[in-house]
Task: structure prediction
Amino acid sequence: MHPTDVLDLITEHMAYGEADPAELPDDLDELLHLRTLLQEARAAALAVRQAVDEKVGALLGPGRTHEYGDSVVSWRHGYKWKPIPEAAERFVEDVAAEDPGLVKELFNLNSMRKTGVERAANRLGVDPETAVGTVLEKVWDQNPSVQVKPKEL
Result:
């Protein structure tokens, strides 16, 4: 399969949402070659996306936003909520003592989410903001990145 055929296949997949296995070659070597080309295309697309993000960041500047379609684009430091191990374990124990099923329903220590902590706190009659501040810490990304969020209606 020629690289331009791969691009056609990807473009078609983007337009219709799925690839038709009947359109793929039946030869194993051709399929493996196609797979290699797709891996290279993925790496190249990631490199292009990173360059585009850097250019968007340079044009947009820190802290500014730009409306694009139904989204708002900004160049900021992102963050993730990370459990504070000892506090998270105590919180889960408290939740389990009150309602054992609630622990499974809302979160586990490996993927404790802010919304799960807030829901559990509400059910326990604890201030959600206090619970989040006690159990989770906000870990900021080292480098800014393009953030795309839907417009508030």
In short: The chain has a mean pLDDT of 82. The longest strand covers residues 71-76. Residues 95 and 152 are 33 Å apart (CA to CA).
